[in-house]
Amino acid sequence: MSTLLDVQDLRVRFNTAAEAVRGVSVRVETGETHCLVGESGCGKSVSALAVMGLLAKGGIRTADRLEFAGQDISRLSERQMSRLRGDKIAMIFQEPMTSLNPAYTVGSQMAEVRMRHRGGSKREALDRAAALLGRVGITAPGMRLAQYPHQLSGGLRQRVMIAMALMCDPELLIADEPTTALDVTVQAQILRLLMELQRELGLAILLITHDLGIVARMAHRVSVMYAGKVVESATADSLFAAPTHPYTRGLLDCVPIPGKVARGAPLGSIPGTVPRIPLGFQGCGFRDRCAHADASCATIVPQQTRQPGHAYACRLPAGWVAEPVA
Amino acid sequence: MSIRQIAGTLGAIIVFGVALMAIFAPLLVPHDPFAQDLNLRLVPPSFMDGGQPDHFLGTDQLGRDYFSRLIYGARISMLIGVATVITSGLIGITLGMLGGFLGGRADMVVMFIITCRLSIPLILVALAVVSLVGSSLTVVVLTLGLLLWERFAVVTRTTVMQVRTLDYVSAAWAAGCSRTHILLREILPNIVHHLVVVATLEMAIAILLEAALSFLGLGVPPPLPSWGLMISEAKDYMFFSPWVIMVPGISLFILVLGINFLGDALRDFLGATRDA
Amino acid sequence: MLVFFGRRLLVALLVTLTVLTVSFALTRLSGDLAIAIAGPQATEQDIIIIRKAYGLDRPVVVQFVDWVVSAASGDLGRSYIYHEPVARLIKDRLPVTLTLGLTGLLIAMATAIPIGILAAMREGTLFDRGIMMIAVIGQAMPSFWLGLLLIITFGLKLGWLPISGVDEWDGYVLPGIVLAFAAIPAMMRLTRSGMVDALASDYIRTARAKGLSRASIVLKHALRNAAMPVVAVAAVQLGFMLSGSVVIESVFALHGVGYLGWESISKNDFPVVQAVVLFLAVVYIFLTLMADLLNAFLDPRLRTS
Ligand SMILES: Nc1ncnc2c1ncn2[C@@H]1O[C@H](COP(=O)(O)OP(=O)(O)OP(=O)(O)O)[C@@H](O)[C@H]1O
Ligand SMILES: [Mg+2]
User: Fold this and answer.
1) Do chains A and C touch (3 or more CB pairs under 8 A)?
2) Which residues pair with A302 in a beta bridge?
3) Which of A93, A102, A116 lies closest to C211 in CB terms?
């Protein structure tokens, strides 16, 4: 298995005093689903957009390494990057209702991706679009091609977005909370679809979510983010079997994971909210909400390895046991 | 300071400067603005070749002192601007409040009146009214006031609709306040900043329109020194003495620019919208 | 869609009826029309004759109904001065005004839309703020004065363009510029704000994520959505230009409809006055109606509902 996307110490700053992303390292392997999980506002979307080179105006990105399929993409011009986007790397978004252009038909929006990256006639592109719409479970694809986004439901639009992302057979699909805005039943359908596509097409997926239930069902590997940083990274099995960072444990306590959390155990919650971290902040961002923080947490955060492939950023030893809270 | 703040300050200085000029005109003028001297016609400004020291901006085709006329002209422009804004503001705000507050059929009627007003050719109708009723300062003010209210109405209507649903208005309803009380004490104070911005815009438009009407000979009657009228009377001489149209034209331009700058600054400062 | 169109048409008709009333009432403002027509030297006898000749001795209601009925059938009355049907007078003058208006609109759109797009793409930069400042400055320019300045500069000093009349096409250039000048700031602002909104939208992020070219993102995806309000404003501006041509036509001595209106006002030619007012209003009503339809056509959400 080879590394498809390799991100080391990604940082993003907007023209404010705070850093939105403060050192994210993620490695997505070919053909696997990697989940990036964390609370709202912790910088998941910004990280993904930074990788794609799609940051909003004023966003400044730095990284020690930013490689896609062995190629350094941190120094690509906007023009070179646009050749990659939509072709080798595709992305779908959190907001299916507004992510399609209201002025053009589904077919024309799908066809233009193919024609931009692969050339060919509009006819061929539309044929492929119809086939893909069928593949993502849309009935009567020929009719849908001629429709406008406002004529489709949210679930259908997200399916269209997925089909559009597949127009050029990408190697990596970045999916930013693709189901958050949808009904629960539709959510399940979309996730199942993504899983099938992943297996069938050998697609690598970087799936962003704040829902550990989704992680448990979908992920091969997981990176847990807190306040702009990855605090724990492991295979899904290892993470659920032995969550090590206090934040990860806190998250798992909040959510019932079928089969992973003992039935009947009380649900915990993490007190407090995600803080805004100012520039030049030292130490652990979680310390104010952490029951196990001590003075050393204000200065250094050691990077530790629990076992090969399972890293976490905390002073606590791998096998720490929570002391009963007084 | 940013460009916008500089422009805003400049605008305030211009507007207040011209206002002071208008108020104290009789004290400021070196000559009687109506006194003709046929021996001293079309004297260039004192800083140009052939200028005379006691006619700073020269004289017009009838030998009247241009500087004095200019200062008296400020009176007319400011008077027109302020009086028109008051008249049109009264009409427009009333209509807008009725439509925005009552909603339903009343609102449809108000919208219809606004649509009708917009489709009437402004300048032509103003010209016709002034011509038929007879030209005087009062007629010009009333005509412009009756024609320029639609922006007030549109902005009032939309902002009242937004404010109407806010919590403190609901609270006033619940407390059993009367409609009039709610409109005048709860809603009006909360939209007044939008209206101030519209007022500046409307004042600029009124001043430009008066100048255009006077230029076409159907605005303020001669020998009043309206800046538009000055341009009109001077235009036959502009080829050989271009300053005769430059002086009143630049004054008009600077005043309107100052009002617009001030309006923009007020909009930024008060957080208001200028377009509905 | 059909309901929308039907309602819109009904409003247009009602507005037209109101304007018919207004234009009729307008000419009756002075009290007795016959006295105004006869002029200061007229005797009592003359006035009575005139009153009879022009049908002004009939009750006002009868006169009004007569005006409405004949206007609806295309008969706008006869000019007192030219002794010709007003409809023919307007028809003769229309090409000048229409050419002028379209020239102005063309110049305005060709200037305002590209600059508005560029300003939006460079939102917040010095370029953007500078352009917006120029727009404010432009709005403060009295159009008749600008016309005179252009005449002095380009007509006399440089001798590049004719200063009055439209014997050749180039006679339309200067008045067209003046007319465009008034419309440019509003159009530019609207293009800019529409483009700023569009460029910040989710579907533009999608378009970028698809790797589309910059040209396609700006001109195809963003502009198409920003264009709808601009289209509406363009039509409204054309309406304003046609009615604002009164001033410009008199500055440049162009014998168009606006000039006809002004001339007949100063000569108390009332049938022409009320007809020109009505005509310009109807053109405006028609243009806004067309703009709404065009918008409905451009916006798939309206078109398909
Ligand atoms: N364009 C921007 N300008 C300034 N700050 C921004 C911008 N976009 C995001 N941020 C900041 O970056 C931080 C991370 O935002 P981000 O959207 O990545 O969160 P998220 O983890 O995706 O949350 P959610 O689950 O709600 O989508 C937030 O604090 C946000 O305020
Ligand atoms: Mg997000």
Assistant:
1) yes
2) none
3) A116
